[in-house]
Automatic annotation (TrEMBL), chain B:
Residues 51-316 form the ABC transporter substrate-binding protein PnrA-like domain. One of its GO terms (cellular component) is plasma membrane. It comes from the Bacteria. Residues 1-27 form the signal peptide. Keywords: Cell membrane, Lipoprotein, Membrane, Signal. It is found in: Cell membrane. Belongs to the BMP lipoprotein family. This is BMP family ABC transporter substrate-binding protein.
Length: 355, 359
């Protein structure tokens, strides 16, 4: 017992001060950075908190957080979704095809139609994943991998390089709020999918923790037998949630094509689906946590760019880009705080007697 | 019974998915077919001159390196009167297949093998050592130790970048210009950047050049358009008004971002890379003043022709570099600037201008 005492003390410390420790660590790293480089303090302020860095952070965060929300919806109901990357790519491609074939429509109508198409195709991919995992009892990791390969192959096969999407979403400043220095241009002067993504974080959070649907979803993901006993249709919840998750991944794809880059490119998701999974895990399967994790990933990405733009070469930028992954490993290994996946994740649920 | 039917369906769908992922190389199939023919009747291959091309990961019509090199092979084939069946390409699906794809051509008795891209360098060197009778042309592959049957078609990217830098430095009103680049793990990309900086400083010593490299590894650094776009936005936010996008699809993302920015083509401009990107990235046209080109097609034509004549130059072979036409921006570029660019090109060519790269 005495052997365990220091460990549990550490646990308590960790639980209470885990987040503070991360912030303190970040500040120490920043302080070291400021000291080892010849830049002036003013430049450092710009590098660390300048509008360009923060804009980049948010822009980088949006597809990651949407992907993470997609993962949360699926996994909270017990379906592992490793195929976010594929759903995102399929959504991006659908959005591109819809946009290029409606170029002659009024811009807003064409863009909204394309977003709907992207979300629908994402949802379809989610439904296919659910079908594989639930109906066909396929290993969910394999099913997710199939989704990725299917999306990569199909989109690059069908992609027409001559097609051009004309126009993309532009920023909609929110009157008043957009005038606030620094925060205004960063948070309140964005294109619509960025706002939507932030709203979705709140919606999924409230839905998951304050509604009947959310409670049942979590029950299905934690203890499907118990949920079944009280009359919840386990597999129906899983179908619905996985499809909704696919739709969110499709929205992330729509962001890439219709709001960020403006065009489709083969494999343009470039691993964002997988980083979303890391954000989901780091965020402890919680929407707010996932937003925090995705923001951290975006920020380190922005930072390593800012350092290069400012001409800092004393710190190898590989270290900066490594940071989010180190932090993820630390989080997953339980050193700072603890993450725990839904208990019934990845397990096929069969009602008694059906097997 | 019902269960096994479902399993069959799943298996079929999985197979279909794999097939779709593997198949976007319809034109490559004949190459594989001709292997079998050649292996069956080696005598029929004798006396023929055959040229094979192995792409870097991606398609042959990628509107970049692969396509330019393939156009060179086609052009050389026409000039030499080769049958269509004697020029073939294989599209590489995965970096680990480089050697196998080259081996396919070697087994089929091809005389010249063009391998496209820096990443194929090691595989090409190994294949050239094992097959001294086959000529290899490595596009963008620097040769450390010269081999008689391996020519590296390389370019003075720093010269090309220098021209782009002179153009960017002359166009900039804000005094800040940017470069959004693929990875610094690839020397040609670094050369582009160093040349760009030197060129810009040659017209405006005080100019602020901000450059960024993609943080990922080689396999990812050129295929991330959203990183390019977001980074270009970051540079615009910092006041850059000319952005040089050099890094495959990543760079294309940067060009597309500038093309949709406020003041595109009036206050902010972009410069492409490798080929004339006016044609290859039409979405960038609103801001694209020019591109820092490497003339891959003529280089490949020259080398294939020399191979056919048996006068193959082993070692490094320098191709030409140039700026692409200004297209719609032609009227906006002053005659003085055009003259300056011509002088610069001549100076770079005769060595009177030094970009400082590699010193």
């Amino acid at each position: 017992m005495s052997k365990n005492a220091p460990v549990s003390a550490f646990h308590r410390l960790r639980r209470r001060y885990g987040n503070t420790m991360i912030v303190a660590l970040a500040l120490i790293v920043m302080a070291i950075l400021v000291n080892v480089t010849p830049l002036k303090e003013q430049t450092w302020l710009r590098v660390l908190f300048g509008v360009s860095a923060l804009n980049f952070t948010l822009r980088w965060t949006v597809p990651l957080v949407l992907g993470a929300l997609s993962g949360i919806l699926c996994e909270r109901s017990g379906i592992i979704n490793i195929g976010i990357e594929g759903m995102m790519l399929a959504g991006a491609f659908a959005g591109f095809v819809a946009k290029t074939s409606t170029n002659h429509w009024p811009l807003a109508a064409s863009l909204i139609f394309s977003v709907v198409a992207a979300v629908a195709v994402g949802g379809l991919m989610g439904a296919v994943h659910a079908l594989f995992s639930i109906r066909f009892r396929m290993d969910q990791i394999i099913s997710g991998t199939v989704i990725i390969i299917l999306a990569l192959g199909t989109t690059s096969y069908l992609y027409n390089r001559d097609a051009i999407a004309e126009g993309k979403f532009s920023s909609i400043p929110i009157p008043g709020l957009a005038q606030i220095p620094v925060i205004g241009p960063v948070l309140f002067d964005n294109p619509p999918i960025t706002y939507l993504a932030l709203i979705m974080v709140a919606v999924v959070h409230l839905g998951l923790f304050y509604t009947r649907w959310g409670l049942r979803t979590r029950a299905v993901g934690e203890h499907p037998r118990a949920a079944d006993t009280v009359g919840i249709n386990v597999n129906r919840y899983r179908y619905i949630n996985t499809s909704l998750g696919g739709m969110l991944a499709g929205l992330a794809g729509a962001f890439l094509v219709l709001e960020a880059v403006g065009q489709f490119q083969e494999g343009m998701t470039a691993g964002r689906g997988f980083i979303s999974l890391a954000a989901m895990i780091f965020g402890n399967w919680n929407p707010i946590g996932a937003l925090g994790a995705a923001t951290l990933f975006g920020y380190t990405q922005a930072l390593q760019n800012e350092l290069l733009l400012a001409g800092v070469t004393q710190v190898p930028r590989q270290f900066i880009s490594m940071l989010p992954y180190v932090v993820t490993i630390v989080a997953v290994s339980g050193l700072v705080g603890r993450v725990r996946p839904p208990a019934a994740e990845g397990k096929v649920y069969e009602t008694e007697g059906s097997a | 019974m019902r269960r096994s039917r479902l399993m069959t369906l799943v298996v079929l769908l999985t197979a279909l998915a794999l097939l779709l992922a593997a198949c976007p190389a319809p034109a490559a199939m004949p190459a594989t077919d001709s292997d079998a023919d050649a292996a069956d009747s080696p005598a029929s291959a004798a006396g023929q001159f055959k040229v094979g091309l192995v792409t870097d990961v991606g398609r042959v019509n990628d509107r970049s390196f692969n396509q330019s090199a393939w156009e060179g092979v086609v052009e050389a084939g026409e000039a030499l009167g080769l049958a269509e069946d004697d020029i073939k390409y294989i599209e590489t699906q995965d970096a680990k297949d480089y050697a196998d794809n080259m081996q396919q051509f070697i087994d089929a008795g091809y005389n010249v093998i063009v391998s496209v891209g820096f990443a194929l360098g090691d595989a090409t060197t190994a294949a050239a050592q094992e097959n001294p009778d086959v000529f290899f042309i490595g596009v963008d592959q620097f040769q450390g130790a010269a081999m008689p049957n391996l020519a590296g078609l390389i370019f003075n990217e720093d010269h090309s970048g220098y021209l782009a830098g002179v153009l960017a430095g002359s166009l900039s009103k804000t005094g800040t210009i940017a470069a959004v680049l693929g990875t610094d793990l690839v020397p040609p990309v670094v050369a582009f950047n160093e040349g760009y900086i030197a060129g810009a400083k040659s017209v405006n010593a005080d100019i602020n050049v901000i450059s960024t490299y993609h943080p990922g590894e080689i396999s990812q650094a050129f295929l991330d358009p959203e990183w390019g776009a977001a980074t270009a936005k970051q540079a615009l936010d910092q006041g850059a008004d000319v952005i040089f996008g050099a890094g495959g699809i990543t760079g294309n993302g940067a060009l597309q971002e500038v093309a949709t920015a406020d003041g595109a083509g009036e206050a902010v401009f972009c410069i492409g890379v490798d080929t004339d990107q006016w044609n290859t990235v039409p979405a960038a046209q609103p801001c694209l003043v020019s591109s820092a080109m490497k003339l891959i097609t003529p280089g490949v034509v020259e080398l294939v022709t020399m191979a056919s004549e048996g006068e193959f130059p082993g070692g490094n072979y320098f191709g030409d570099v140039d700026l692409a036409p200004f297209h719609d921006f032609d009227d906006m570029i002053s005659q003085e600037l055009k003259d300056l660019l011509e002088e610069t090109k001549a100076g770079l060519f005769d060595g009177s201008i030094d970009t400082g790269y590699g010193n």
